[in-house]
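Example 274.
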Amino acid sequence: MTRGPADSDAEDVSGDLARELAQAIELEQFFLVYQPTIDLQTNAFAGVEALIRWHHPRRGVLGPDNFIDELEESGQIMPVGRWALNTACAQGAAWHDRGYRFSVSVNVSERQFESSAFFQDVADALWSSRFDSSLLVLEFAQATLRGDRETTAPRLELLRTLGVRFSIDDFEPGETALEELGQLPIDIVKLDREFIAGLSASSEASSLVHRLVESSETRHLQVIAAGIEDSGQREQLQNEKVHVGQGYLFSRPHEAEEIDRFLEDFAIFSGKPL
Ligand code: C2E
Ligand code: CA
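Predicted structure in complex with calcium ion:
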């Protein structure tokens, strides 16, 4: 992410940041970019993940690492998260209307998940966009779902009544994580980018992926590998029968119009009908 000169003055930035973020929705400075996911076995387009960006008036386009924590701490993640859900569902419905049928994933922060307003936010976004709920995927960090099982499971079950699917983000398939996975109603497991980066050098990591993919059949889980940057990684993951891949090798995140072009090219090069 390119950073502007204001980054050098940390205190000013944090003071300004809170104030500027408070107005950013109203001033329509947020926008979403979408990063494709690709079926590793068939090369078909599988879906997109929506990722937030902030068009800052002085500092240019900022990635979420510059402001998500502040949104979380101030509670502004609620309106901003609502905006992201509405925007992603509207865009998903627009693609759907044009004959494309692929999933749209939206990142959900812990604070959103724990808020009593979240269920209604998801329901409203689906209702107002008419987006097919089975194509909406809510992505939760592994840590978000690690909380109190007594509250996490019922929350997920309630959201499930809307017909949406759930993904665990940044998943590291250790023994405990694999065990925990079996106790939650999760549809998609997204292998962590750092984990994928270390995969080729670690036979232990490969055997964990192997076990995860094996167990995914009976659990009806889809396994996604994030952060695929080279074709060696892609081949290894294809050999391990990982279902879906995402990463700079396939595409960086882009605005919706750019994804439209990607979809057209993709249909031509993959030989897939639209
Ligand atoms: P994440 O959910 O793990 O999203 C993937 C991040 O990895 C994105 O960064 C994406 O641009 C980057 N990425 C994808 N493929 C590659 C690759 O091959 N190599 C490398 N080095 N990076 C890759 P981004 O867009 O900066 O997002 C950072 C984080 O901000 C996200 O991590 C997510 O946790 C959070 N985030 C983004 N949008 C939203 C949102 O709308 N709501 C919430 N609550 N969080 C969001
Ligand atoms: Ca994610």
